[in-house]
Amino acid sequence: MQLRSTPEIELSFEKISPYLDNPAPIDLSRYCYDDLTDISYHSHSGCFELAVITHGYGYHYLNGGVFEVTKGEAFLLDPDSYHSFYPIDAQNSSRLMVNNCVFRKDAFTALAGTFPQMEEALSFFSGCPPEHPLHMNDHYLGRELSEYCDFTLSHLFKYYEGAHAGEHLVVQLAVAQIMLEAYRIFSASGFLKSGQEMNPLVTEALNYLHQNWNDPNLSMEVLYKHLFVSKSHLCTLFRQALGITPISYLNRLRIKKACEMIRENPDTIEHIYTSVGYTRYSTFYVNFKNYTGFSTRDYCKALNIYDTFNQ
């Protein structure tokens, strides 16, 4: 998908206090992004946010990065994440529309007896380490869960806007089911749970990758030899712990580092690939596009509209 130039709009930066006064501390909202002055780069103090792209496409600014998003994708943001969605131009010609659900953990206190795993699920998502796939994939929930979230949120507004406590309970139960379904999918995939011990080989591999990510001579063969382990064995352990392969982890780590460098000095974009361990610009470019959804040039253009990421 080719995105056009982003609009030159100055965004505010704010921390939004926990919602709300309604009986179930859950807030549902819809945004069509026709009024760009209403967009802010924000976090929800003490709240999770579930966001579903229901129409069009645009950008997702998340924790200092910028990513392309399109209809049907769903994202789960923990209470410490700063983000905003943004259309491709001031006219919102792509008709970007987002359904949001923001909720506090105590929204489900009363349901503890009905859903005994609820507290465990919330702790899981709020306590995921940085190397967890939920963060490595920029909080994207995956196609299976995105379709489930899209269908569920789209049908909740008629209950949310009602005045009866029973209707708020419908919303409460539906959101709880989404969180439990997300927890089930991530757990079934073997992804690392908060507080669970990693296999020592995976820990050693991660330490080695983080210490040598910018070394152009670093390869998976070098990693396997360093650990005295076979490729298949390490890949199996890596997938069980993190849901991805060692080479995918390394490429994502390098691109994340490249994004940080580009934000500090966009003028170095054509030469930055050697600083993050790539020997060929073409390889760097393909990985950059696959990870961010942008070409390097379009990424710089997108960053130009927003200068408050590191303020």
From TrEMBL:
HTH araC/xylS-type domain location: 203-302
Top-level taxonomic group: Bacteria
Matching PROSITE patterns: CASPASE_HIS, HTH_ARAC_FAMILY_2
Keywords: DNA-binding, Transcription, Transcription regulation
Pfam families tied to this protein: AraC_binding (PF02311), HTH_18 (PF12833)
SMART domains per UniProt: HTH_ARAC (SM00342)
Recorded GO MF terms: DNA-binding transcription factor activity; sequence-specific DNA binding
Keyword Transcription regulation appears in the UniProt entry: yes
The UniProt record lists the keyword DNA damage: no
This protein's name: AraC family transcriptional regulator
